[in-house]
Amino acid sequence: MLNRPRILIACLDWGLGHAARSLPIADALKEAGAEPVLASAGRAADFLKAERPDMEFLAMPPYNVRYNSQNMIVNMASQAPRLAAVAWQEHQTLQQYIRKYRLNAVISDNRFGCFSKEVACVFLTHQLRPRMPFRWIHPAANQLNQWFVKRFTECWVPDFSGNGNLSGDLSHPPLNHCPTYYIGWLSRFRNLRRASIPHDLDSLTVLSGPEPQRTHLERQILAQLQRLPGQHLLVRGIPLSAPERKVGAVSVINYLKGADLWQALHRAAVVIGRPGYSSLMDWGLAGKKALCIPTPGQTEQEYLAQRLKAEGRIAVQRQDHLQLESGLREALQYKGLSAPKAEGLLDQNIQRLLATLSPA
């Protein structure tokens, strides 16, 4: 293995989930003797800088995806030309970074343009087969997705390959045309232990995701929580410093760093939020009961939510039919989320990757 190989971790800037699950990879690389370099844009960049201020950071082109419509096809089609241009721009940026910063490998969390022939490039995704609103679109969408993925050296899936997996049909079975490795769940809380803390919060709301839907949900939840008894905490998912404020019995704060959010999760009887894949992994590690509200039109979240509800693990409500009082009661009746044993899969794959690297 090279002496302290430099590995770029480039994560998508759609909400904070991709950035959050990049942290355990960065930490594991550092523990393995490598030098992680973080890269993203927008709020995801702010998040990474706040969580790992000691790590080198590089700017990537922002995608700035917005979910203005409840129809995913409309959302993506209206932004497709700009998104394609950003992917091309990030590809060009990466080539410059590889030479300028002497990078030895790249791990790209859903940044399709972050591949190169100059160094090993890993594509990280939990969607080997994205869900589309209409079945007739599936073949074309999956062919396009796999066309991009096969530009990479290999593919990593943050899940398990056997029973108890989280992603279901989204990432099972593995791809045929690209070496695919299941690396276990990724959570920014991987090195923190569960705590036995009394539930002094009736609910913890953790918001994230693209605008304007993040703000729409925040307003709805805050309006309803004010009318409920008990104590509630709402974390807005905006990594900017601001004092905590009270709205009735609801405490509202912009952002909590990892250890503080971990503590808040243990204080809450129920967590409320989007069923984003990274959030589900975090909540599973904490063993939480959850009320999940999929982003309207985001088929991946709708699939995950309904799958977990059918398994008796979480309560689910639609954003346009949100009733927190009944939803919180219902969530307490479900068995909640739990994480399978990791078995060192992430560390094993990092060691395997590092053993193959050559000087940049």
Keywords for this entry:
7-stranded parallel β-sheet; Rossmann fold; 7-stranded mixed β-sheet; 360 residues; globular; 2 domains; single chain
Describe the structure in your own words.
The chain is of the alpha/beta class and 360 residues long. The protein folds into two domains: 6-186 and 341-355, Rossmann fold, CATH 3.40.50; 201-333, 3-Layer(aba) Sandwich (Rossmann fold), CATH 3.40.50. 37% of the residues lie in helices and 17% in strands. It has helices at residues 17-31, 42-51, 72-100, 138-149, 213-225, 258-267, 277-286, 299-310, 324-333, 345-355; strands at residues 6-11, 35-40, 56-59, 105-109, 120-124, 154-157, 180-182, 201-206, 232-235, 245-247, 250-253, 268-273, 290-292, 315-316. The protein has a seven-stranded parallel β-sheet with strand order 3-2-1-4-5-6-7, with helices on one face. It has a seven-stranded mixed β-sheet with strand order 10-11-9-8-12-13-14, with helices on both faces. Helix 1 (17-31) packs parallel to helix 2 (42-51). The model has no long low-confidence stretch (mean pLDDT 90).
